[in-house]
Amino acid sequence: MTTPADAAPPGSNGSNGSGGGIVGAVGGTPLVELGRIVPPGAARIVVKLESANPTGSMKDRMALAVVAGARARDRLAPGGRVVEYTGGSTGTSLAFVCAALGIPITLVTADAFSRDKRDHMRALGAEVIELRSDNGRTTKELIERMIAKAAELAAAPGAFFADQFNNPDAAGGYAPLASELWQQTGGRLDAFVQSVGTAQCITGVARALRQCQPRLHVLAVEPAESPVLAGGAPGAHKIEGVGPGFVPPLWHAGIADEIAAVSTAEAKAMARRLAREEALFAGTSTGANVVAALRLAARLGPRATVATIACDSGLKYLSTDLYSAPAPAPAPA
């Protein structure tokens, strides 16, 4: 039987072929089963805790693969600078890899994304350029402006444009995640659910898992306010890191068997519920994943296993309305 590791980059069960140092801590994340929020009669739901990666995000895997690929192809020469557009987690992960390897980096982001992420990028030594958004919302126009600004900066001599939507190495960075899922579930895996931003994660994981489970049901998740994968119109939303407002360049219909729409309100409510009832502290895209996974689990029944991803840590959202509480009223005199 073929396993996802056969198609993966060096290393499978958490190893990334990078050797020692902090980047060697990328991958090998835990898998947990949801207990309290899954209703009787539904499929088992397991969640990959990508918050256990060094920056608290699944994007550490992709960032390591992108930088390694650029070096291998001589697209990132010694002394060169990485340039990228980012909603926060990709930028933080690239800043982490670049800090570990001594590479300068410039990141273009916006005030639509959490202050925690922007501060994290700067803490890792990145130069961060922030664009203004439409009232803190993710829109197609904002993402396009970020991409254009990063492309402009990447035209400088010695710069490497990571270009996460189009980078050929990004999806392969998630193949070890698929191998880990297969091993941790003992090969009992019927469905995989993942929200779509660049489509690199769902592509890399689904491609590898289908090598050993051809009947795997893959469900793609997108914001209900911007259902472009399903053929709808783009719109503004507040599920960070997904739903760019256009069909990702590397997306194709064969990646997923089904597309589910989850609203910002549903995603936020589920993220808060996961924290309270499952002690799983994550962000809005994770909330959206679990909403969709629960719907699918109800249809598949108790003999099936549905896997999804906790894309990042709730620590990335403490400054946002997802978790920040209003200031308490002053005590009476």
Task: Summarize the SSE layout with pairings.
Elements: E1 31-33, E2 44-49, H1 59-72, E3 81-85, H2 89-101, E4 105-110, H3 115-123, E5 127-131, H4 140-153, E6 159-161, H5 175-184, E7 191-195, H6 200-209, E8 217-223, E9 258-262, H7 264-278, H8 284-300, E10 305-310
Parallel strand pairs: 2-10, 3-4, 3-6, 4-5, 7-8, 7-10, 8-9
Antiparallel strand pairs: 1-2
Largest sheet: 6 strands, mixed
CATH topology of the largest domain: Rossmann fold
Rg over CA atoms, rounded to whole Å, is 19 Å
Tell how many strands the DSSP assignment holds: 10
Taking the alpha carbons of the first and last residues, their distance comes to 73 Å
Beta-strand fraction estimate: 15-25%
Low-confidence region ranges: 1-17
Instruction: Figure out the total of helices.
Output: 8
Gross morphology is globular
Task: Estimate nothing, just give the exact number of structural domains.
Answer: 2
Helical content (DSSP H or I, runs of 4+)? 25-40%
Structural class: alpha/beta
CATH class descriptor name of the largest domain? Alpha Beta
The CATH architecture of the largest domain can be named as 3-Layer(aba) Sandwich
Indicate the multimeric state: single chain
